[in-house]
Design brief:
Blueprint lengths: L5 H4 L6 H7 L2 H17 L6 H25 L1 H6 L15 H22 L2 H22 L6 H5 L1 H4 L1 H10 L4 H24 L1 H7 L4 H4 L1 H22 L8 H23 L6 H33 L7
């Protein structure tokens, strides 16, 4: 059996870009965008400088979570093709460095967000980091096929944090934005798991595709998509919704349900390349789905500021 620990013991010298990669910038961009959306659609205006610094420290907190995740998951990241080139498994950054960066940035982000905005937002950020690093990464990910269902809460908190920056609290609207991401996460990641099944199997991660098979995973994707649609549409009836958001949500949910139905009805005997194309197409659609929902919320708020687009 090959000894994989040597990679971590003798890392190559890391560059600035390696430490940036340690923070998972693509995931961080989603954190920043949804937190900004939560801040923008809140009923309380925020000084631009406070808004900027708050989003900056929310981003740093998201990056800290990514660093802690890479520290803990270094062993399985090295096995999975999708993650082999990350800074820790590739040997460019040591595990100890990843842990130190994650802890330091966590403390800085939470403290500075509390000082820049308020301690409710800071507390939510601290809980988000803890949930992603400890509850999801250290516990759920390797112990249950429901890992991404429960763990999806970590990625759903940013709009609540943004809302709390503006309002100093939590409301129905911020909870619904949380719920939108929470319910979107399983079909999004299960689609990824469908065309990356061997990665999770090789790494020993009990993703639904590994424990229950592809057919069951496709059924789960359809069920969660059908549950997601009324939730997403229901936001239109709240103070942050409106006809512009409703129109966008109707189109997006129709497309998302259609994509889930295509996956659900797919013949198991279809050529692997065709299956891969369907699953990857749905995964990409899921990214557009979430992005445009939050764009629609911000557009609705922008139009409302000019007395347009309301009910």
């Amino acid at each position: 059996m090959t000894d994989t620990t040597a990679v971590f013991e003798q890392p190559r010298e890391a560059g600035f870009g390696d430490y940036v990669a340690l923070l998972k910038p693509r995931v961080m961009s989603l954190v920043v965008f949804t937190a900004l959306a939560g801040l923008v659609v809140a009923p309380v205006s925020v000084h631009p400088m406070i808004a900027f610094t708050s989003i900056l420290f929310i981003a740093i907190g998201g990056g800290a979570s990514g660093s802690l995740n890479m520290w803990w998951d270094a062993d399985i990241d090295q096995v999975m093709r999708r993650t082999q080139n990350r800074p820790v498994p590739s040997g460019r950054v040591t595990k100890d460095e990843a842990l130190a960066v994650g802890l330091a940035l966590s403390g800085i982000a939470v403290l500075m967000l509390g000082l820049a905005a308020n301690w409710v937002a800071a507390g939510l950020l601290a809980f988000t980091i803890f949930f992603y690093a400890v509850v999801y990464t250290m516990w759920l990910k390797r112990s249950t096929p429901q890992n991404i269902v429960i763990g999806g809460a970590a990625g759903a908190f940013p709009p609540m944090i943004g809302w709390a920056v503006a309002t100093g609290g939590v409301s129905l609207e911020s909870v619904l934005m949380f719920a939108l991401i929470f319910m979107w996460t399983p079909p999004h990641f299960w689609a990824l798991a469908l065309f990356m099944k061997e990665d999770y199997s090789n790494a020993g991660v009990p993703m639904l595709t590994v424990t229950h098979g592809r057919k069951s995973t496709r059924v789960h994707i359809l069920v969660y998509t059908l549950l997601l649609a009324p939730l997403a549409l229901g936001i239109a009836a709240t103070s942050i919704g409106g006809p512009v958001y409703l129109a966008a949500s109707l189109v997006l949910n129709a497309a998302f349900i259609r994509g889930a139905l295509r996956i659900w009805k797919r013949d198991e005997d279809v050529a692997e390349a065709d299956a891969y194309a369907v699953e990857k197409s749905f995964f990409k659609l899921s990214l557009v789905y979430l992005f445009l929902h939050f764009v629609a919320l911000m557009a609705q708020k922008g139009l409302a500021a000019y007395g347009l687009g309301g009910w």
